[in-house]
Amino acid sequence: MVGQVIATLAINAGRAAQVERIVVTGHLTDMATMRAVMTRVGEFFGFPVEVRAKAGCATVTGALLWALER
């Protein structure tokens, strides 16, 4: 149920912001069931929800890329 709520909130926020898709980050996506639920909720609402591999490392990866550009 947690995955359903998170995905539903993300989809509604995405629609409000008029974005084309949601990319989910964070360590909750380390669980296969969480990835599956979020993807299914996106399919149900007809709104793409992308759950990438190693999404839990997104913040540190972004920070590293930012630091390397400096």
Please provide a written account of the structure.
With 70 residues, this protein is mostly helical. The protein has one domain (2-69). The chain contains 3 helices and 2 strands, in the order αβαβα. It has helices at 2-16, 32-45, 58-69; strands at residues 22-24, 49-51. Strands 1-2 form a two-stranded parallel sheet. Strand 1 (22-24), helix 2 and strand 2 (49-51) form a beta-alpha-beta unit. Helix 1 (2-16) packs across helix 2 (32-45). It is globular, with a radius of gyration of 13 Å. The relative contact order is 0.20.
Fraction in beta strands? 5-15%
* Average pLDDT rating: 91
Q: Which assembly state applies to the chains in this document?
A: single chain
Q: Count the beta strands.
A: 2
List the strand order in the largest sheet. Answer: 1-2
Question: Considering DSSP H and I runs of 4 or more, what fraction of the residues is helical?
Answer: 55-70%
Distance between the termini: 42 Å
Shape: globular
Tally the helices: what do you get?
A: 3
Structural class: mainly alpha
**Main sheet attributes: strand count, strand direction, barrel closure:** 2 strands, parallel
> Number of domains in the coordinates?
1
Radius of gyration: 13 Å
Uncertain segments:
none
Order of helices and strands: HEHEH
